[in-house]
Amino acid sequence: MDFLSALKISGSGLAAERTRVNLAASNLANAETTRGPDGKPYRRLDPVMESVPFEAALGQADQAAGAAPAGVRVARVAADPTPGKRVYSPSHPDADPQGFVTLPNVNPIHEVVNLMSASRTYDANATAIDTLKTMAQRALDITR
Asked: Which of 8, 9, 23, 66 is the most exposed place for a label (fewest CB within 10 A)?
């Protein structure tokens, strides 16, 4: 794998993890939102990631070995279909006739763990990019 392929792979990872962090932060911010623009409780959002091969020109050397370099991207953002928690609160403005309010299907603990995981993955990709930069610099120093 050449320098640019490795750089693009790590760069695609950074972009995907940034989206993951943004969605987890949005989920946490809306954990108590009982009425959205559609009049329903907020639905937890999750990124759906997919592997994407790079152009043939970048992967010719590795394709001969049977493994084309690939990156990752967010294919789409999906709403979690699980139902929200129902809580008895007859004085709440969004309570139904029986006095129950449907809260969003956001688990704050799950979202914090998701944020921590995304942050560590982001750091790993950033470290890989720094290592690539150091390797390129040392290669240039050798030629001097």
From this structure: 66
At 68, is the pLDDT very low, low, confident or very high (cuts 50, 70, 90)?
Answer: low
Are the C-beta atoms of residues 57 and 79 closer than 8 Å to each other?
Answer: no
Residue 24 near residue 118, CB atoms below 8 Å: yes
Q: Which residue shows structure tokens 């029986």?
A: 98
Q: Give tens-digit pLDDT for 73-123.
A: 999 999 999 999 999 999 999 999 999 999 999 999 999 999 999 999 999
What domain range includes position 94? 3-143
Instruction: Determine how many CB atoms are found less than 10 A away from the CB of residue 57.
Output: 6
pTM of the model: 0.80
What is the domain count for the chain?
1
Rounded Cα gap, residues 136 and 131, in angstroms: 9
